[in-house]
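Here is an idea for our session: we take a single protein and study its fold together. To get us started, please write out a protein record for me. Start from the sequence, derive the backbone structure tokens from it, and show both lines together. Go ahead whenever you are ready, and we will take it from there:
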Amino acid sequence: MEVKLMPLADNDREQFILDNQEAFNYGALEEFGRRDDHFEEDDQIISRDTIEQAIDEGQVYRIVVAGQKVGGIVLKIDGDKGDLDLLFILPKAHNKGIGYQAWCAVESMYPEVKVWETMTPYFEQRNIHFYVNRCGFKIVEFFNKFHPEPGEPEMRNDELDDQFPDGMFRFEKRIE
């Protein structure tokens, strides 16, 4: 199975957003079931605005296997530093190694990047496993009510973000 990263086509933007929301909602539903209250808006764990901002500010790729779009990825590259803003695999394509192969493709495409960073909510055990155990990231920070994320006004004054009240992990991968 060959995993390819294809630049996002203009006419695929809407489906990319919907697919991203489906994948993120699936993760929340697996963890919390129907009682989930971690949604940003309109029963979405990640809002359209959040996804559109990432798309507008980053390099966007579709993850494609055998001609089928099975996920997507959004990156921001600044010299030797890279931010993984979004990475999703559609639920029907989970547990096939596609996410790992996509990540390996990213590292091959951007050999100049020596430090990668990403974040995920505390409850996303699949993501934590994926980043730490599969891709070699390390958890370097845990944002929570005792340690708010700098520059995030909604988490200042010991107030937690309503969406992720138990916090977010920040991951880093250093490539020698």
Q: What stands out?
A: The first helix runs from residue 13 to 32. The chain has a mean pLDDT of 84. The beta strands are 3-7, 59-65, 68-78, 81-89, 115-121, 138-143, 168-174.
